[in-house]
Design brief:
With about 170 residues, the protein is an alpha+beta fold. It has five helices and five strands; from the N terminus they run αββαααβββα. The protein has helices at about 1-30, 60-75, 100, 105-110, 150-160; strands at about 35-45, 50-55, 120, 135, 140-150. Strands 1, 2, 3, 4 and 5 form a five-stranded antiparallel β-sheet that branches. The chain is globular. The protein starts with a helix and ends in a 13-residue tail after the last helix.
C-alpha cells in the first residue's frame, strides 16, 4: 500500500513539474510589453524624424537591437514632445486601441525582420556613447539615435487601411 502511494505521489510531482516547465516555456515566449522613451534630436531630411530612443533590456545588445522597433512603434502610437526650435509630433494612430484592434497586422509588422524595418535606420552605425549606456537596476537603458521615414510609414499605413489619410474628413 505504501509503495503505491509513493508511486502516486512521485507521478503527481513529475506531472506538476512537467506542467511547470511547459507553462514557463510558454510564458517565456510571451510578447513583452513595450518599454521605451523617445526624445527628438533634430529635424531630419524632409519627411523624417531624427529621434533618440531609450530602450530597456537585461542585455545591452538586446536594447540596441530593440531600438529600431521601438522607434517605429513610438512614432505610430506615442508621438513625442518637442524641444526649443523643434516641434513635437503627435502619434500617427488617432485611436489608442488601434494596436489591439489591428493586432494581426501589427504582430506581422513588428515581427523579427518585419516591414517596420523599411522605415527606420540607425544613424550612428550602432556605436553608443558612454552617456547613452546606463545601468538601471538589473537592466540596461540604452539610447540610440535613429531616423524614421514618417512620410513613407504614414503612406504605407494609410494604403493598408490602418490609419486614415490626412485630410480625409475634408471635402475636396
Amino acid at each position: 500500500m505504501k509503495k503505491s502511494i509513493k508511486k502516486g505521489i512521485l507521478l503527481l510531482l513529475a506531472s506538476v513539474m512537467l506542467c511547470g516547465v511547459t507553462i514557463a516555456t510558454a510564458a517565456g515566449k510571451k510578447k513583452q510589453p513595450w518599454r521605451y522613451e523617445i526624445e527628438v534630436v533634430e529635424v531630419g531630411a524632409q519627411g523624417t524624424y531624427l529621434i533618440k530612443v531609450w530602450s530597456y533590456a537585461k542585455k545591452a545588445n538586446d536594447a540596441i537591437a530593440q531600438a529600431t522597433r521601438n522607434a517605429v512603434h513610438g512614432v505610430i502610437f506615442k508621438g513625442f514632445t518637442g524641444k526649443p526650435g523643434i516641434s513635437g509630433q503627435k502619434a500617427l494612430a488617432a485611436s489608442p486601441n488601434l494596436e489591439e484592434s489591428k493586432k494581426d497586422f501589427f504582430d506581422a509588422f513588428f515581427a523579427d525582420g518585419g516591414k517596420y524595418m523599411k522605415f527606420v535606420n540607425i544613424t550612428n552605425n550602432g556605436s553608443i556613447s558612454a552617456q547613452d549606456r546606463l545601468k538601471v537596476g538589473k537592466e540596461y537603458k540604452i539610447g540610440v539615435i535613429v531616423s524614421v521615414d514618417v512620410s513613407a510609414l504614414r503612406k504605407d499605413l494609410e494604403d493598408a487601411g490602418i490609419i486614415t489619410r490626412l485630410g480625409a474628413g475634408f471635402a475636396e
